[in-house]
Structures are given as structure tokens and as C-alpha cells.
Write a structure and sequence with these properties.
heterodimer; A: alpha+beta; Butyryl-CoA Dehydrogenase, subunit A, domain 2; Butyryl-CoA Dehydrogenase, subunit A, domain 3; four-stranded mixed sheet; four-stranded antiparallel sheet; about 55% helix; B: alpha+beta; Butyryl-Coa Dehydrogenase, subunit A, domain 1; 3 domains; 8 strands; about 15% strand; globular
Chain lengths: ~350, ~400
């Protein structure tokens, strides 16, 4: 996979421009209704962002895993209210299975620990998918189903799935649907070196990177506000108690960035999804998820009452941080998995495992 | 591009290069041989002062002190990332590095920057051979975090300076050959209260220096009081500019702050917890181990990144402070977490006795971890300044 930081920064710049024009959090907050949705998606798609992880021979941008993660980081900085990460994941799964990529927004399933989707020899699907981000706003759903001979990528039309719509804590659509009796558009086995946990793994890395971007924006907002807001005769940022809270927030931002950046880098350079990738991604989702919780709490404390209103954009970020930490496995779920592997390897392997990264 | 912001917090993606991991293997072999020969106990209760000159000499003979320094000073011109690996392995093994660690980490680089060539040619090769232990003479009875309150005076006399005063909490002073001392050479000015302090290289064998031990609460002998009475320091031992120490202190901080010693001091408690809970822990044990490992992995990735950025000639001062803040708080909280998680462990577990010994030690050393080398409060002030708030 070739990639240079030049390509990465070009794509990230172009993503920044699109998000700045089309999903500026303040503009969306001020907007009546959802008139921003269609132009946002159009620009995302026309500029090839959705196809970041699709090879060129399948019509994708083929910019590489790292550049895709950079786009996701930027999407976090804008608290993106659209299924970009989901469509990128869907494109990656289809691409790996050799299925042509349809246009339009997509989402993926299963994306919780409990859900399993099955496909039998005749291609009949079964199972339930819960908490699927943006499901009702998509045209297609891409499923990672358990086939009798291994994991299978399956493409279905959203309208065939009878999606029961709900919303996430961020207020974004989140759907539940049953696959029983749903007609397939296409299916194909994944290459043998890709396991059935790959979607949770990549999805967790996606969310960790988005959390890092979101937290960075929250820090910028909070620092700006602390410099401007006057209380007791001076900017609140001059008070040591507030400074120390913001320093802690900077620590959480740094941890989320370092952990998620490392996981993205590990995936980019990995030949297969091995134990090392698992450690990196699990750690990133755990640590970024923790940072999301801590960071949101500190930011709200800095902003006081105004930050608790709908009109202020802080909630666009903090509610997405809370939503993203829930998607593709919570901190607790990943920690339990990681802890079991560490325990099974034994105390004397703990340091060698850590030091190998 | 991804992490560049107004504040500029940025952690470059840095992986340890093959030569660093190769060095790690060599260090592990060396340490295993030392342990087999009885030099030190990797599971020791850490009450000794960690000083073993013969061990330091053997480390020096391997070429592992002054690893990044110029060859003309006895150094080896290798990378910060290799030094990073060395530090990790020595820490994790509980090796007695006090005879050379401080000199290697900060005193040597300080000399290279501010001492004359003659001093460098004399002292630095001895550090590299493991023959030269340094202590840091900063704190005083009325000057701790507030360094600029230092009162120990250095007065100009013919050919040098005469020093009078007392330094306290001076780690390893009883073993040290030299101190880098911070002394008052003029009064602070109205505009700059940091003005008027100067750094000196102090030979600890000079007449007029008395070192009195101050036992720590753990029983360990590390702290000292260093009394200086009419100590004569020649001009050649002046470091940098007179009265301007405040400018010199800041640039070395990224090196001092961001190393693995900022999160590995109580790591052994985590290792023993994993041993205690066994290969099939309950849900609570598994989840908690997972979280702790994720947090530690993240700290390592941050620290490696800072060292990689230093190697690339950048000055990640803010990032270094963040690593130290997060790392020291983490390693301080770790023993308490381990204690909670061990509460329902089977008392017949094989390692339970040594586990409790190690845990007790970790709990006792924990308070100092967020004090030494800059308190959490001072660090957060520095981070806040980096954010543009001060």
C-alpha cells in the first residue's frame, strides 16, 4: 500500500474544506431542518472521500489506509453528522470481497458485540443488527455474515430491511433490523486471512480516530472560551483551577490522538490483522473512549451553563464523543477482550508484548 | 497534518527502529546474566539506593552510557530511540542504575551545552565509563517547586566563587561525585524575579561540603541534606551565563520529562497482579487488566513519539510535559488499582507473599512520583502556558 504524507495532507486539506463549507457545526446548529444534509453528502461523494479505502481498480480513490484515517480525524474535528466512516468501512468490506461499490451512503453491520448475522449455503440471511449508525439514511447496508466456511461480505438494499429507526445519544439516526428473509444483492467470501472480527476491529479504529479529532476541536473551543469569558474581573483562563482542568483536557486529547494514530498507523502497515493490530486497536478504542468521557466532562465544566444549551455547538461534539465511544464495542468490552489475551499470555509475557510495539 | 492545531499538540507516529529492538535483545541478555550472577534482585523490595558502581562500570563498558553523545566525549552517537529502549529495559528489570542514570539523562547533556571544553573532556568520558555519579542541587529548605526562591549564595572571589547555604532532598548526594548546583549570584530584579541564579558544576569532594542523610518513609536512603560552607568553586566550573540559569533550565526539560521512567516506576505491581489473577481471570479482573494495559500502551506510544521527535531535532516541550503529567499520575494510581483488584484473589496463590511485599512498596513510593522532577501542579501550569493561557 503506497502512501505518502503528501497525499495524506492533500486529502485532509480537501476534507477540511468540504466540512468547513458543508457541515460547520455552528451553521448546522443554526439551520432549520436538514437542508444541509444533501449538499454535504454530495460534496463528500463527489470528492471521492467515501471511496478512500476502495482500490483504484474498483473505482476507488485508492489513497491508502493512512490517508483515510486522516479524513476521519478531520471529520471528527467537525463532529460530522453523516455516515462517512460507515461508508468507508462498507467500501473496504466490498472491495476486499471483490464486490462492485454502489453509490450513495452505506452503513455496516454487525457493529455491536452481541449481534451475529448468518448466511447459509443458499445465500439466505438471518440474524439481527442493532445500533447500526445512520441505517435509515443509507441506500445500502453491507453485512459481515458468518458463512459455513468463513466470513462473507453481503450487500443488501436498506429498503428491504425494514429498519426500525431510533437515534443515538448524539441525535443521529441509529437503526435496528432483522435480516431474516432479506434478499441479497451480492455476496462473496472474504480472503482467508480476514477474520469475522474485522468489522468490529476496523470500526473501533474509525471511531477512535474520530474521537481524537472531536476532542481536539473541543480543546480548541474550550481554550478560546476560557480566554474570552470574564468572571470575577478576569478571563476564567487566568484562574489556576481552570488552567489545570484545561491541562488535563490537553492530556486526554493527546492520549486519544496518540493511541488512535498509532492504531491507524499499525493497520496501515499491517500485512494481516494479527495480535499486534488487535492490541493497538483495542488500546486505541479503550483509551480514546476514556478520553471522550473525561474530555467531555472537563469541557462542559469550563463552559458552564451555556455549554449545556442546544444553541451552543459544544453539545454537537460532546454528544458525538459519547456516541462514538459506544459504537463498535465500548471501552469495557474491548478491555475485557484485551485483558483475557494478556492473562492467557501470562505475567512474564506482559512486558515483551508491550515492548514489541 | 492531522494533529496540527492552534496549540500545536502533535505526536508524530514513531516506531522503534530495528536497531533499537536489536539493542533491546542485547540489553535483556546482559541483564539476565547480571541477575544470574546475583548483582541485583529483579523482584527486590527496592529498599536499596539503587547504587552499584561496579554495575555502572559494566554498563559503561558495554557502551550504554552516553549512548547519544559525541564520540569525542566518550559517547557513541547513537539515537534517542536506542537510549529509550535501554532506559525501559533497565527500569523494568529493577537494575541499579543510580550510579549513572542522572548523569546520563541530564547532567551530561547540560555540561555539553554550558560547560567549557576542558570540563567536558575531563568529566564526560568518566560518566560514559560509569565512574561519575551526579546529583542535582536545586531544592532548599525554603525553595522547592518555587526554584527561584533559592537562597544558597555564590559570591565572587578571586578566581572563582564562594558558596554558602543548604540544599535538601538531594537524591544520591551521598554517592555523587558531582552536583549541578543552582546558586544565587545576584538579587532578583523588579522586572524578573527569576533573574540572579547561576548553575555551577560542584565537585562533591571539595572542602566545606557536608552530606547528611535524610531517611525516606520507605526506609530507603536516597534523600540528603547538602550543607555548603565557604566552598570555593573555580570560574571554570561556572555553567552558562551568570544570573541567567532560568533561561538554561527550560530547554532540557523535554529530555528529562518524557522518558519511560515517568510511567514504569510501579509497573512491577501490574506484572504481579497479572500473575496473581492467573490465566483465566474473572470479568472484573480481565476488564481491569485490559484497561491498564491500554493506558500503559498509550503512554509508551506517546513517550516513543516524543523521543522520536527529539531525534528529529524538534522541541516537543509541551508534549513532553503532557507525557510526564499523564505518566506520573498513572503510575501513582496504579498501586491503588492493583490493590483493589487483588482484594478477592485466592490467598493460596503462589505469588501472594511477594505480591503483598511488592504492592506495599509500590503504595509507599507512589506519593513521590508526582513530586520529583516537577510537581503535577507545576507541570499543569507549564501545559496551560503551552495552551496560551498564561
Amino acid at each position: 500500500m503506497t502512501d505518502t504524507s503528501d497525499i495524506s495532507s492533500l486529502i485532509a486539506e480537501s476534507a477540511t474544506r468540504i466540512f468547513h463549507d458543508r457541515c460547520d457545526p455552528q451553521a448546522i446548529n443554526n439551520a432549520k431542518g436538514v437542508c444541509w444534509k444533501e449538499p454535504l453528502w454530495r460534496d463528500i461523494e463527489e470528492n471521492g472521500l467515501t471511496l478512500s479505502w476502495v482500490d483504484e481498480e474498483r473505482g476507488g480513490a485508492g489513497v491508502g489506509i493512512a490517508a483515510g484515517f486522516d479524513v476521519l480525524y478531520v471529520s471528527g474535528q467537525f463532529a460530522i453528522p453523516a455516515p462517512l466512516g460507515e461508508t468507508m468501512l462498507a467500501g473496504w468490506l466490498l472491495s476486499q470481497a471483490g464486490i462492485a461499490i454502489p453509490s450513495g451512503p452505506m452503513s455496516v453491520a454487525p457493529c455491536t458485540r452481541q449481534d451475529r448475522i448468518f448466511i447459509d449455503k443458499k445465500g439466505a440471511l438471518s440474524g439481527t443488527a442493532r445500533s447500526v449508525p445512520f441505517a435509515s439514511e443509507t441506500r445500502h447496508l453491507v453485512l459481515l455474515a458468518q458463512g459455513e466456511e468463513g466470513p462473507v461480505t453481503a450487500l443488501v438494499e436498506t429498503k428491504d430491511c425494514n429498519v426500525k429507526e431510533g437515534t443515538s445519544i448524539a441525535g443521529d439516526p441509529q437503526g435496528k433490523f432483522s435480516l431474516d428473509g432479506v434478499t441479497l444483492l451480492a455476496q462473496s467470501a472474504l480472503p482467508p486471512d480476514i477474520g469475522s472480527d474485522v468489522l468490529m476491529l476496523l470500526g473501533a479504529a474509525v471511531r477512535a480516530r474520530q474521537i481524537a479529532g472531536g476532542l481536539q476541536a473541543v480543546l480548541d473551543l474550550a481554550v478560546e472560551y476560557a480566554k474570552e469569558r470574564i468572571a470575577f474581573g478576569r478571563p476564567i483562563g487566568k484562574f489556576q483551577a481552570v488552567q489545570h482542568n484545561l491541562a488535563r483536557l490537553a492530556g486526554e486529547v493527546a492520549a486519544a490522538d496518540a493511541a488512535s494514530g498509532s492504531a491507524a498507523d499499525a493497520i496501515h502497515h499491517a500485512k494481516c490483522f494479527d495480535e499486534a493490530v488487535f492490541l493497538e486497536v483495542a488500546a486505541a478504542k479503550i483509551r480514546a473512549g476514556e478520553a471522550a468521557g473525561e474530555g467531555a466532562a472537563i469541557a462542559h465544566q469550563v463552559f458552564g451553563a451555556i455549554g449545556f444549551t442546544q444553541e451552543h455547538i459544544l453539545q454537537r461534539y460532546t454528544r458525538r464523543l459519547w456516541a462514538w465511544r459506544d459504537d463498535f464495542g465500548t471501552e469495557s468490552e474491548w478491555a475485557e477482550k484485551l485483558g483475557r489475551r494478556i492473562a492467557a499470555a501470562g505475567a512474564d509475557q506482559l512486558w515483551p508484548i508491550l515492548a514489541a510495539r | 497534518m492531522t494533529s496540527e492545531t492552534v496549540q500545536g499538540i502533535q505526536f508524530d507516529q514513531v516506531r522503534l527502529p530495528p536497531e533499537a529492538q536489536q539493542l533491546r535483545a542485547e540489553v535483556r541478555t546482559f541483564l539476565a546474566e547480571e541477575i544470574a550472577a546475583g548483582t541485583f534482585d529483579p523482584h527486590g523490595t527496592r529498599e536499596s539506593d539503587g547504587f552499584d558502581r561496579e554495575f555502572s562500570r559494566r554498563v559503561g563498558a558495554r557502551g550504554w552510557i552516553g549512548l547519544t553523545w559525541p564520540k569525542k566525549y566518550g559517547g557513541h552517537e547513537r539515537t534517542f530511540l536506542e537510549r529509550y529502549v535501554l532506559t525501559e529495559e533497565f527500569r523494568v528489570a529493577n537494575a541499579p542504575t543510580r550510579g549513572h542514570f542522572v548523569a546520563d539523562r541530564q547532567s551530561g547533556p547540560m555540561l555539553m551545552k554550558y560547560a567549557g571544553e576542558e570540563i567536558c573532556m575531563d568529566v564526560l568520558p568518566r560518566i560514559c565509563r560509569g565512574e561519575c555519579c551526579f546529583c542535582i542541587g536545586m531544592s532548599e529548605p525554603d525553595s522547592g517547586s518555587d526554584l527561584f526562591a533559592a537562597k544558597t549564595r555564590a559570591e565572587r572571589v578571586d578566581g572563582g566563587w564562594r558558596v554558602n547555604g543548604t540544599k535538601v532532598w538531594t537524591s544520591a548526594a551521598h554517592n555523587a561525585d558531582y552536583m549541578i548546583g543552582l546558586f544565587r549570584t545576584s538579587a532578583p530584579t523588579q522586572e524578573n524575579r527569576r533573574h540572579g541564579l547561576t548553575q555551577f558544576l560542584v565537585d562533591m569532594k571539595l572542602p566545606g561540603i557536608t552530606v547528611n542523610p535524610i531517611p525516606q518513609m520507605t526506609g530507603s536512603l536516597d534523600f540528603n541534606e547538602v550543607v555548603l560552607e565557604d566552598v570555593f568553586i573555580p570560574d571554570s566550573h561556572l555553567l552558562g551565563e551568570v544570573d541567567m540559569a532560568w533561561k538554561q533550565a527550560t530547554s532540557e526539560l523535554a529530555y528529562e520529562r518524557s522518558g519511560p521512567e515517568r510511567f514504569l516506576e510501579t509497573f512491577y505491581a501490574l506484572v504481579e497482579l497479572v500473575r496473581l489473577l492467573g490465566d483465566d481471570p474473572d470479568l472484573r479482573g480481565a476488564e481491569s487488566i485490559g484497561r491498564l494495559v491500554a493506558q500503559l500502551h498509550t503512554l509508551r506510544r506517546m513517550s516513543v513519539s516524543v523521543n522520536g521527535m527529539l531525534q528529529a531535532g524538534k522541541e516537543p516541550v509541551l508534549e513532553g510535559s503532557i507525557v510526564k503529567d499523564l505518566g506520573t499520575v498513572w503510575q501513582q494510581k496504579l498501586p491503588g488499582r492493583v490493590r483493589d483488584l487483588s482484594a478477592f484473589a485466592d490467598p493460596r496463590s503462589a505469588n501472594i507473599v511477594s505480591f503483598h511485599e511488592q504492592l506495599e512498596n509500590a503504595i509507599m513510593i507512589a506519593p513521590k512520583l508526582t513530586i520529583q522532577g516537577g510537581t503535577t501542579e507545576v507541570l499543569r501550569g507549564i501545559i496551560a502556558r503551552g495552551l496560551g493561557l498564561r
